[in-house]
Amino acid sequence: MIRFGPAGNSQSFYNEGFKHTKQAAAWLKERGLNAFEYSFGRGVRLKEETGRDIAAEFDASGIAMSVHAPYYINFCTDDPEKREASINFLLQAMRAGTYLNAKRTVFHPGSCSKMDRETAKGYAMEAFKEALERIKAEGLMGLPCPETMGKINQFGTLDEVLELCTLREDLVPTIDFGHLDARGIGAIKGRAEYEAILDAIENKLGRDRLRMMHVHFSKIEHTKAGEKRHVTFADEGFTPDFLPLAELVAERDLTPVIICESAGTQAEDALAMKEMYESFR
Ligand SMILES: [Zn+2]
């Protein structure tokens, strides 16, 4: 089943007087959305009781929950302490994710500003492998989904992320199309570029995993270094355009979870994406 929803709460949610994320479940359902991503980007601070409260509302409304692990994870390091800390940040997010009944945990694999990409890949593969072993040993739910990144000096090209997903047969990537566009300095012009991305995922991981991929989508302003800031669908002159992707998702019968990361209008823009997708069904 394809799903659409926001990363965090839209400004309109707060403007309407709502304060607590557990209230977002009914709010999203009423608008026809069925996914939500809860951010631990700035740290994992969620009490078990609060998490379970939120999960009960979301489960009752049929909204699929994913979480975003802390932004400061960096697997691309030769420093054993930093690597250990990074593995722990991912595990913390996954533990708190279990309170939320989150099925997926998105994470940024790391930075390669201080080393060449091949070396970075070696470290990232090694650290992620170790993280996977500990996740298994602890029996944590919430599939870890490495994300494609928007800045050129970050680890997380499409190929790099797909490579991480080869470590286990059930891993799916988080394909952030805005990030891929930004790191390619406006690389996604239309249908042909989206097709190439989808083909690359299918060729590397197979059709089942392509169908189930996690998606982040927003328009992103970029500089020559890649990502600068997230904008909204109402901001003119930014890329990429979701419409050709909506058509391909429908044509290829894909069932991703599509999370919108627009700045402030993420629920509204998620709904706009859902409508574009439905226009091709
Ligand atoms: Zn992210």
TrEMBL record:
Residues 26-270 form the Xylose isomerase-like TIM barrel domain. InterPro entries: AP_endonuc_2 (IPR001719), Xyl_isomerase-like_sf (IPR036237), Xyl_isomerase-like_TIM-brl (IPR013022). It holds the Pfam family AP_endonuc_2. This is TIM barrel protein. GO terms for biological process: base-excision repair. Transmembrane segments: none annotated. It comes from Gehongia tenuis. One of its GO terms (molecular function) is DNA-(apurinic or apyrimidinic site) endonuclease activity.
